[in-house]
Amino acid sequence: MIKRTIAIYRRVPTSFARDVLLPLVITRVALTLVAWLGFRLLPLSSGFPLSWEIGKDGAVHRTTTGAPSAHSLINMWSRWDSGWYLEIAKSGYNYEPGKPSGAAFFPLYPAVTRAFQSILFLPKTDLWYLVAGLAVSNISLLVTLAYLYVLVRLEYNDDVARRAVFCLLLFRTTFFLSSVYSESTFLALSISSFYYARKAHWIAACVLAALAALCRSQGIILLLPLLTEYFAQRKLNWRLVRWDIAAFGLIPLAVFAFAAYLHWRFGSWSTVFHAQQPWGRRFLAPWYTLSWVLGHISPLTPASHDWLDLGFFALLVAASTAARMWLRVPYAVYLWTATIFFSCWGMLGSLPRFVLVVFPVFILFALLCEKSRAFRLTYLTVCSMLSALLFVMHSQWQWVA
């Protein structure tokens, strides 16, 4: 088995193995080891009253401790929203007005997880559904890194592409990309969509963007930056517009299809919005959200996440401003669109995780690493420590994003 693995590795192109595959393996192994040591050396009580774990029998059981009693390598990557994806993959959608429900989560990731589990004829237990979800997430992460690398190489040199990969793998919430979460699948679809847009393969780009819109709600915001890329390649000349522009309709159509499904199941077109309300999210104009956040922000304490969320919002605004000078216009449009979208939900909660899927941020970080050795060392040191610390907390049911 080891010899076969080494033989396969040697067939991989050197640049891909060195710049993508090796950093992926090293960072994931390091995070796994850190969380495993945390279970044994720094056990924490659960910070969530409805916390659960996969027990020795392969089923979900309630727990009051952060460190799992069995299946450590599965449980550490299966926390918080992983339970919702597990429920949807197993049993489909449920919705009860006013209560948290699976209808708040878009369908592509749990559907692919269920398909993966079925195709491989895995046992239909909670354990193996989560194993399937982990496989989907990590395969998606590999695809993400590959497309990020080749996309950045279209604009810059190999060093910038390599550093963009490192910046993503070391970001403080990078562990969500390998967890039973939809972030890595969304990133794989959105980055590959931009790559094929740069290559002027518009049907492929729009199909991938539509799939991204079925993966996470922010997939809808891919429409504007991709349209910007389309018209930029045509030098804003309407005479050069072709029939392929109709493919952009697939992106809102995907969101409409999910809303129509929820309407068919639960009798309301607004289910897709109402399902967010138990988490405190409601659709508002950005200025209302920001005024509410600033007016209700909690005191700065180790348990408070409001200031951290606000800090990441400031990071998005700064990145969006800098993008106009440092990046291509479609990336700047994507950053500003994401900034506005994330500020339209009445709160900024989970923003450190949401920033993870806005990939132009990591191209900016890579350019800064290229220009400044001090920034490169600071990013490497601080993000490595924070991602390790936060994963130890997350793996033991402490809220981080």
- Physical arrangement of strands within the biggest beta sheet: 1-2
Beta strands, count: 2
* H/I helix tally: 18
Hey, roughly how much beta strand do the residues contain? under 5%
Q: Report mean pLDDT, rounded to a whole number.
A: 91
**What is the straight-line distance between the termini?**
38 Å
The ordered string of helix (H) and strand (E) elements is: HHEEHHHHHHHHHHHHHHHH
In angstroms, what is the radius of gyration?
Answer: 21 Å
Low-confidence stretches: none
Apparent shape:
globular
Short summary of the structure?
The protein is mainly α and 401 residues long. It contains 18 helices and two strands. A two-stranded antiparallel ribbon has the order 1-2.
Description:
By secondary structure, this protein is mostly helical. Helix content is 63%, strand content 1%. The chain has 18 helices and two strands. It has helices at 2-11, 14-41, 72-75, 82-91, 108-119, 126-153, 158-170, 183-198, 202-215, 223-233, 250-266, 271-274, 286-296, 306-326, 329-342, 351-354, 360-371, 373-395; strands spanning 52-54, 60-62. Strands 1-2 form a two-stranded antiparallel sheet. The two termini are 38 Å apart. The mean pLDDT is 91.
